[in-house]
Specification:
Order of helices and strands: EEEHEEHEHHHEHEHEEHHHEE
Radius of gyration: 21 Å
Distance between the termini: 28 Å
Shape: globular
Number of strands: 12
Strand content: 15-25%
Structural class: alpha/beta
Largest sheet: 8 strands, mixed
CATH architecture of one domain: 3-Layer(aba) Sandwich
CATH topology of one domain: Rossmann fold
Strand order of the largest sheet: 6-7-8-3-9-10-12-11
CATH superfamily of one domain: P-loop containing nucleotide triphosphate hydrolases
Number of helices: 10
């Protein structure tokens, strides 16, 4: 397979002034192949959304490299860079309520990308917008309505149509279902699955729900405090987690059967997540890990392949 997008030591720090920085993403390297769905999971505040936005140039990266189709992308985007890369890389945002302009009609929202990045006439833009609304399960007759007239699930479908109308090769899905009811989540996931098959999309799917990520993803990447701790095939990571943090995440995932969920024993992760302003030396999970060794608090583990696990990559001194 051909690598579509690759990051190498991607770093994003937010400057707070007085020499203080938030280490949102620290040296993250990840390669995503064409037509692959990579699920990115981790607790809130682990840096997942920041990683996705930095890849797309919505945040200026502090250090590292991002390449798309073999071309290195600029660290700081100018207007002409957005015009050049936006038709190829898009984002579906988490909140369907705040990500749509309330002053624009649905037709204007969906067709805005075509107006900016194509030579189509106004009539052709309206026709394509109507086609895409129908493609995501909405009525073309609704083009003159405004976002507040739609439910959360319908708004997210509008966001999907807006992102995909340009038919980009790569899409970042930033927790696109977390604000939706469970039944609506399934509808949006099935919609993305159908569109991925028909368009040959490559997706970075950011989410909290490990079961959902396992269902939609080819590979799963686990992130903790700005760094990757485990990467592998989605089913392998979910059913045979290797990193202690991944094991806790999987154990915390609720069972579908409420009777089984009530009976099962659950062990929560002890301790607090270290501050992203004062990241501790060594392994970032060491202060919460029941298997931590002295070297874990001194040496930062690197992602290493586990050949006996099909090339799974794990950043843990237990395997080094």
């Amino acid at each position: 397979m051909t690598v579509l997008l690759e990051t190498e030591n991607l770093t994003k720090h937010f400057d707070l002034g007085h020499g203080r920085q938030v280490h949102a993403v620290d040296g993250l390297s990840l390669a995503i192949e064409e037509r692959e769905i990579v699920g990115l999971v981790g607790e809130s505040g682990s840096g997942k959304s920041t990683f996705g936005k930095t890849v797309l140039g919505l945040h200026e990266r502090t250090a590292g490299r991002v390449s798309f189709q073999g071309e290195d992308l600029p660290a700081s985007y100018r207007q002409q860079d957005f015009r050049r890369y936006a038709p190829h890389m898009q984002m579906i945002f988490q909140d369907p309520y705040s990500s749509l302009n309330p002053r624009m009609t649905v037709g204007e929202i969906v067709g805005e990308g075509l107006k900016l990045h194509s030579d189509l006439s106004g009539r052709e833009v309206r026709e394509r917008s109507a086609e895409w609304l129908q493609r995501v399960g909405l009525e073309p007759a609704h083009m003159s309505r405004y976002p507040h007239e739609f439910s959360g699930g319908q708004r997210q479908r509008i966001g999907v149509a807006r992102a995909l109308i340009l038919e980009p090769e790569f899409v970042v899905c930033d927790e696109p279902i977390s604000a939706l009811d469970v039944s609506v989540q399934a509808q949006v996931i099935n919609l993305l699955d159908d569109l991925k098959a028909s368009l040959g999309l490559t997706l970075l799917f950011i989410a909290h729900d490990l079961s959902m990520v396992r269902y939609v993803s080819d590979r799963m990447a686990v992130m903790y405090l700005g760094a990757l701790v485990e990467v592998g095939k989605a089913n392998d990571v979910f059913f045979d987690p290797q990193h202690p943090y991944t094991r806790f995440l999987v154990a915390a995932n609720p069972e579908p059967d409420p009777r089984t969920e009530r009976r099962r024993a659950f062990s929560a992760i002890q301790g607090e997540i270290p501050s992203p302003i004062n990241v501790p030396p060594g392994c970032r999970f060491a202060n919460r890990c029941p298997q931590a060794m002295p070297q874990c608090r001194e040496q930062t583990p690197q992602l290493i392949p586990l050949q006996e696990k099909g090339g799974r990559e794990v950043a843990c001194h237990l395997f080094g």
